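[SOLVED] Need 3D model of a two-part complex

Original post:
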Amino acid sequence: MAKWVYTFGDGKAEGSRDLRALLGGKGANLAEMANLGLPVPPGFTITTEVCAYFYANGSRHPDMLAAQVKAALDHVGALVGRRFGDAERPLLVSVRSGSQASMPGMMDTVLNLGLNNATVEGLAQAAGDRRFAYDSYRRFIQMYSDVVLGVPHHHFEEILESFKEERGFSLDTELSAEDWQKLIGAFQAKILAVHGNPFPQAPEEQLWGAIGAVFGSWMNPRAKIYRQLHNIPESWGTAVTVQAMVFGNMGETSATGVAFTRNPSTGAKELFGEFMINAQGEDVVAGLRTPQPLTEEARHAAGTDGVSMQTALPDVFAEFQRVAERLERHYRDMQDVEFTVERGKLWMLQTRSGKRTARAALRIAVEMAQARLISEEEAVLRIEPASLEQLLHPTIHSGAARNVIATGLPASPGAACGEIVFDAEEAEQLKGTGRKVILVRVETSPEDINGMHAAEGILTTRGGMTSHAAVVARGMGKPCVTGAGSIRVDFGNETMSTAGTTLKKGDLLTLDGTTGQVIAGRVEMQQPEMSGDFATIMEWADKRRRMQVRANAETAADAQAARRFGAEGIGLCRTEHMFFEANRIRALREMILATDEAGRRAALAKLLPIQRGDFATLFEIMAGLPVTIRLFDPPLHEFLPKRPAEVAEVAAAMGVSTDKLERRAAELHESNPMLGFRGCRLAIAFPEIAQMQARAIFEGALEAKRKTGGLPAPEIMVPLVITKPEFDLVKAEIDATARAVAAERGEEVRYSVGTMIELPRACLVAAEIAATAEFFSFGTNDLTQTALGISRDDAGSFLGAYEQRHLLPIDPFVSIDQQGVGELVEMAVARGRAARPDLKLGICGEHGGDPTSIAFFEKIGLNYISCSPFRVPIARLAAAQAALGKVAAQES
Amino acid sequence: MAKWVYTFGDGKAEGSRDLRALLGGKGANLAEMANLGLPVPPGFTITTEVCAYFYANGSRHPDMLAAQVKAALDHVGALVGRRFGDAERPLLVSVRSGSQASMPGMMDTVLNLGLNNATVEGLAQAAGDRRFAYDSYRRFIQMYSDVVLGVPHHHFEEILESFKEERGFSLDTELSAEDWQKLIGAFQAKILAVHGNPFPQAPEEQLWGAIGAVFGSWMNPRAKIYRQLHNIPESWGTAVTVQAMVFGNMGETSATGVAFTRNPSTGAKELFGEFMINAQGEDVVAGLRTPQPLTEEARHAAGTDGVSMQTALPDVFAEFQRVAERLERHYRDMQDVEFTVERGKLWMLQTRSGKRTARAALRIAVEMAQARLISEEEAVLRIEPASLEQLLHPTIHSGAARNVIATGLPASPGAACGEIVFDAEEAEQLKGTGRKVILVRVETSPEDINGMHAAEGILTTRGGMTSHAAVVARGMGKPCVTGAGSIRVDFGNETMSTAGTTLKKGDLLTLDGTTGQVIAGRVEMQQPEMSGDFATIMEWADKRRRMQVRANAETAADAQAARRFGAEGIGLCRTEHMFFEANRIRALREMILATDEAGRRAALAKLLPIQRGDFATLFEIMAGLPVTIRLFDPPLHEFLPKRPAEVAEVAAAMGVSTDKLERRAAELHESNPMLGFRGCRLAIAFPEIAQMQARAIFEGALEAKRKTGGLPAPEIMVPLVITKPEFDLVKAEIDATARAVAAERGEEVRYSVGTMIELPRACLVAAEIAATAEFFSFGTNDLTQTALGISRDDAGSFLGAYEQRHLLPIDPFVSIDQQGVGELVEMAVARGRAARPDLKLGICGEHGGDPTSIAFFEKIGLNYISCSPFRVPIARLAAAQAALGKVAAQES
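Solution:
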């Protein structure tokens, strides 16, 4: 016979926490607590299989359910010495939903079920308090009508309000038992009028109505949306837990409360929570009285003059402390519990793992591991890698109020506050006088670099997640919001306006680069901290990690940050990014705009010493660690001069007319720069570019050696390859340059040449390419753009609608699209390794810093991941978790 | 013992035409002719395996080769009654290269080998002509020095010129035997001086020198380039054929000639060729005398008063006629032969299949099949599908001189001539007065449509193969050259200039859309013809074809052309193309620029009747045939108004300010429109667009039924799909609209819904998509752009360098990249069919009209191909050939 119902109570239970899928989280944990012998009001759980049956069979229940429920009710009644519907000693129950995943507040609950015109008197007798009994009854009627009968709350509120007005009452507490009794009559009349049927008096009818309503609530709109948002399968269903009522509002020795077994904000090992004497849970929510701290220590700390539970109910508190300790040791995690004290007797109503801040999570994990409650591996697995973000950048204080005036794209995380400036040069000047500024532009260009350096944060009204501002800001680790399209900037008047708000130069502005919020005024911040527990967890993680973690870095500052964050090398040095600064960009522009080889060589001659110096510096900072340098891959249009002054400057430097220069710039214009004259296509058309860069790398390496004694081993990366001959051609230029430099200097540099795999065709022909390429680095940004046909810069117009409607399993620019892009990467890994077993495989797209993607990269066996310096700790932790077997979940 | 040498002559041969790979084309055919008993000067062929040995062993020959050559020489000498090096009856030979593939003029030849200071006298005796003998000797010395010794020709020319000057001669024919003898002395002295060694007198030394030179020539630069251009593997190597010399210059009963067994221009069954009495092949090439026709009929037709071979050498002619007839029957194809008559004796020197025009190829194939010489299948396989292009458009007469002033992209094939106009409206006006015009623009936009219709051809100075002008012109079947960047148009002065040439409005201009040439003035044209042999071959092809052939068509004119060319349905109706005309584009622009759903619905209401009428017309024209209609997929930027007048017009129609409209247009601007807000992304963001189109399709189908009685079965195609949910969402809109229309009209339309597979991810998740999609049509243009990361519009800047340097096996926009894009398509076919065995599979990218690609599509089992109407016959033929087993060759 199918078992649809599981009882618990009196020190034992038919279920346990292992039956979470069947009993829901709440039901499983109540059973577990009962098995532990903890004081749990007896009850039973109707399984999630009944929910599945209910939806598969037109809202009907399985045949044997009624009998099983009846038996369970009798069992519960026997344990508490009451009977369902008994006029003298009535059994009252709560009916709650509970699914495998926590869905707080998403589904409906009914309390005090079992009360009717007769049993209410029995309750009054038992409690010795008529007012309490009728108050409980009217609460039940309101809740049940709303949840089960669909009679909205406001009907009852109207009756109550006019009654109070009539009597001149202002508070509910002024109503007597008799007043409530009268109102209950009026409530029941209203129900008959609105619903067409009288309020059910039979407790069995009440119970089945409530059970049906809980199952029905699984499909209500807010539950559906919640499931979609949290990727909870509809098929899981909900269980229904029916439990004997206990009352925290039976006088001064009764109470209700919630607690965490450790401080969820700091992680400190101390009972943390609040309680209220003579109250039920909903009174705490209603906020008419202030809950009190549990411990004396907390009360002192809060500086309140109330009474702590420790003082008010010392015996119960002592028992509760033991229970809490027991639960934490049993569950081996910090618990979030609910309890009620009924006339001096403690009852546990719920326990579950408690939510906590990143800081608390670190401390709890470390301390539990040090106390041998969990292993180091478990401690590492307990930390959500993405939560570290909170600790790596200054952030807006969690409690601070935010006057959000616009929301753009969260282009670079962290928060910053400063005075508004609209001009990059002015930003530099103000910074020079010690002021903090936020640079606001429509979009940024390489001319703005110094201003961006000077600013605390950058806001643009145009541009996407890969716009100039976004890329540069991420590189600098500076907060940035891009594409805040609702803001209009008036440079003439030096103002920025959005619906209803106009700010002018010098006004304070706060940016939250983690959420994309633009906030007027100053908001309180909290600063990052990376020592202590953070460092301990990182150390433990690093011991378990298989994949290397490198950083994407070009400047000395980036490289230093990368080392500080624990990067084990540079996985991507985008050489074109080394020319963003105003005094360097002119030479790069001359190179791009040259109309012949001679012109190009002249420009390249100016670039060579700059590159050599940069590389030497990077090699020095990364001493001994691998440095992967990608040959020029500029999206040409981003580097073209736009303003007349820039055009004139470049024209003068090149000795050509501005007319000619503008014509050349127009020639270089592309319809789809993403798919244009980029990457190795440049090196093939103009081999002198690759020659110059290879020379700068080899000479830079020798220079670094002179200073540090150790010879660096650069990894040279050829971008945007789709065929083997392309790669071979560029590799030949690099090898020839290596021989030339070795001959000139009398010393060889050890180096390897590999390629960036960033186009679908490259994945398909990976075996051919691997015949000569010594490493692959997956450029999953571009691979995503091409495989999905989505330009990241243009996706704003539709990707929102796609996520909302679940047309894509994930945002493919945040987590790698495992089914599409992921299959291409896997294919390239398999084909590449088949051709060259020791092929070194890495990834340098932004997915390198995404934990879900990292789990995927572990699964397919990459050698390393590379991400922006500020995500290195996240990547280290995620890589450790992946190595420990955490899998990359993704809908398909 | 390895056999390195194969002899032939005297009615038999060791080889045959089946040994083409071993003996080369020339050697194999000489052996074959010998076996047939035809008069072939005896000789022998050194195999291609010797060539391979030669390159594998540092230019050494195999051990036994010398002995085998010696034996073969003796054999040849015995047959002709002469001996190598014999002073009285010297054997003279020619030494020629010959590989498996024809490489005309790519490798070196030596004639008259065996002559030296002694044997020349023997030749003089035998010929009874000292001048002939010494002339032959000096020719041999010049040729041998050039080819074998590396002593350039000019040394001898200088000596000869100064000798002639000294004597006052102007023609070589004025030199006597003694003169030549003196010159030979001077030549030999020069050789000693330049080369350091004397000219070799020993015939054996001469022979081995020549053999080595022929092998060496396999690797000379021009042979290498030729092989690269024609995809001939280097490993094939060349054979060397050594053959007894015969002389066409031994007096009035000697002659030399070339002939085709049928007319290579018209295909008529008649001997076609020319000959010259008392001459050698090189005299014909030198052009000092005019060759004469072979037959009297040809002489009459040409209106010359020379003497035909038929008249001059009637017996030899009769024999030659029999030989030609015999060769054609034997080879079962029109032959291109070379012959020499030595003192009244016919000698055959070469036979091979003759090159012919497309027209001739059709006639020959049809007539040979009708004469049962070949099968219908063979006839179908004999026609190069691409050659039909010549017959489908007017073309420039092959003999016409071309004053090419610029070359752009061959955007739409065919040739056209007319007066230059720079304005679309003016083009319409002039067309109205009966004038023929060529529309010249920087680039075209939808406003220019009527002018493009009016023009004979279109020239733009900007834009690629998929620019507006190119796409529209191909659809219209109008010649078009795009991106002729060297031309500057001055609209103010109404002139166009290129280096050295300025043309003004009204000047005549000719465009060759097949080559991209822009030609000043008028050039003679030839008109297309599609009946007769063409129709016969098509009928035969259609019987053998497995794949359906459809056309890409939107307008009534396109659809009618498609039917005329034999299309079996429409494979791609690009609905956005239906709005190119000026009076329609405004409504489309209103739709695109609408800022809310209400505005969009207002615009869509205007579009609905237009679409419905268009679809009804297409269904009527295609009565009974499938029509695949793709939902809107506009590259938004192409449809945005640009000129102020257009902006004002659209703004007025929408009732908004021009400012607001311009802002909206700016919002719609995309960095990479190819990867932007396109395809089903539009239908998902704005479901009302798909609803309107579905309604227009269903209502149009019912309207067509009222007129024709038959109910069309439209295939509705959702573009740019990458996930199943996307497709399902749009399909749901279509299905709902179908139900709504059926309810309103009381009649259902049968339809199917499928998708365009045009992005790599779609190929990977094809199984999922096929669960609900009823057909796939591969959009290989976009699939190529994304898989290779190459924007076709921008590829001009580097694709040239790529082809030149063989970095890509083919131009991937002409023939499908089988290794990359092809694997994706194959994957989608396999996965799609696994999920839905009756999935209908087609292709509608431009590869649908490319024969190599078509062979690939046959191999992977597509159901149909679709191409532009004018390529339908090519596709039909190519599909038949593919079905008959012709494979799609492609380098990897």
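Edit: The radius of gyration of chain B is 33 Å.
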